[in-house]
Amino acid sequence: MDKLLTVVVPVYKVEKYINKCLDSLIVPDELMEQLEIIIVNDGTPDRSAEMAREYEKKYPQTFRVIDKENGGHGSAWNRGLKEATGKYLRFLDSDDWFDNENFVKLIGRLGTCNADIVFSDMCFYYEQSSSFRSSKYSSIPSNIVYDADELEWDLLGQSEEKTNFHHCTYKTSMLQPFHQLFLEKQFYDDAILFIVPIVLSKTIIYYPGVIYNYLIGREGQTMMKNTMMKRYRDMENVIKSQVSFVQNHRVSSKWKESKLSQILSTMIKKHWKLLSLIPYSDSKKELKDWKQYIKKEYPEYSKSRLMTMYDLLPFPVYWYVVNKIMKE
What we know:
The chain is built from 13 helices and ten strands. By secondary structure, it is of the alpha/beta class. The radius of gyration is 21 Å and the shape is globular. The chain has two domains: 5-216, Spore Coat Polysaccharide Biosynthesis Protein SpsA, Chain A; 225-327. Strands 1, 2, 3, 4, 5, 6, 7, 8, 9 and 10 form a ten-stranded mixed beta sheet that branches. 42% of the residues lie in helices and 19% in strands.
């Protein structure tokens, strides 16, 4: 039977979370036949892969474990994207989980859907406080197929992450030609999905309902401040990959152009702020190099407030003022 939906789950050091993640993918038998769950063991040293194989044994027509040498999150996603056979594709990190009831509804809807991107809602789960915060689309009517070139993309919200995997189910044939889509052996690889679905999509639809539950607060998580300060180079690399993709795949839609410009500007501003907060000597060099890159590769970027301050003030004064303000 042809698969309707592939879910790619990368696995590395997630013993504590893997069962909750994979249990959320168990659906009624008639729907299990339409699912393909690709679990990519990225050389995990703990029992996570062994635990995942129990699902493969129990549901051999649905679950598949692929073993590979450690190459990082992006490497695991690239492998899963390459192996996917479903008409549609989702990514699920193994410390997160799907809302099972809404996931069942989504599968049913995909059976009659042909849009390139299917949007849905998500929740942030804060581990320390055991609280949820939902992220929903409030401005776009649901259950309507939209021409992606004619869509006012700002209706989806100002966040640069609205086309990321937490919110989206993708047509596999849209992404699979780019089976090395994700940067490997670095953090923040998923940020390429802020850009690529907008550029490539022809049709979209929004189905209301929370599918993805995103865990916040796990030690070592990539978006924690300390991690970002240490891995600022990774953020720079992914922004460069975003800029490169836009340059190599020009769009004709004014709405897409506007949204892509907003996303890139937001990413550049965030990275400028990050580089302003790292140690003095590194900050001085990195900001100079980053400004030269922006001037050469993305000259249409309008200066942020911090960049204007950088141009006006001697660097020692700039760095002191910014760090004092940001850390108060």
